[in-house]
Specification:
With 188 residues, the protein is mostly beta strands. The strands form three sheets. Strands 3, 4, 7, 8, 11, 12, 13 and 14 form an eight-stranded mixed β-sheet that branches. Strand 11 and strand 12 form a beta hairpin.
């Protein structure tokens, strides 16, 4: 499951898909200074939610606490309706999966990026003031590395998740073959 992703995209680029539709991405605390970097469970990260006046960029913790106290950072989308959920878009330009064999005590680290796109949205939901990423069955690009994948949309399709203006089952599908590029980042 995805427990590490990256974002190296300026805030103004995140607004472009909304501007193209005549909408304004609201940044309540002015334009945030999004430092390029990696995000891990528990970090505060940028997400976009449907606010009263339009799409809104917020800094929100990644993972809420389950009743057991464990963090909920990924959430299965299979067979669920999210019409009554607070949906969010998580901007990213890459995510990581980790596989055996271990080298120097660490698993092999793989970076996935969206082919032909400088960045993408990860679909998520918000609960208890934190967000989790939605997962589905893996597509052919992810299946050799993991038995689940996070749900992704290209930048121009994210608005459909916020307002459910497209069929939910089409959005919550695995990526088709060739949609993702993958490369090993550790060990080099």
């Amino acid at each position: 499951m995805c427990n590490n992703y990256r974002l190296h995209v300026p805030a103004n680029q995140l607004a472009t898909p909304f501007t193209a539709l005549g909408r304004t991405l609201i940044m309540p605390l002015s334009r945030p200074n999004l430092e390029p970097g990696d995000y891990r469970i528990g970090d505060r990260a940028p997400i976009v939610v449907a606010g009263e006046d339009g799409p809104q960029l917020e800094m929100t913790p990644w993972a809420w606490k389950a009743p057991t106290g464990r963090p909920v950072f990924n959430f299965r989308s299979d067979g669920r309706s999210f019409a009554r959920s607070t949906r969010c878009l998580i901007p990213a330009d890459g995510f990581y999966e980790f596989t055996e064999p271990k080298v120097q005590g660490k698993k092999t680290k793989w970076l996935f990026t969206m082919a032909g796109q400088p960045w993408f949205w990860i679909l998520g939901i918000v609960k208890d003031g934190a967000f989790a990423m939605l997962t589905t069955e893996p597509g052919p690009d992810v299946a050799p590395y993991h038995d689940r994948q996070i749900v992704l949309l290209p930048p121009d399709a994210g608005v459909h998740w916020l307002d459910l203006s497209a069929a939910q089952d089409l959005m919550l599908a695995p990526c088709p073959a060739g949609a993702l590029d993958v490369r090993r980042v550790w060990p080099e």
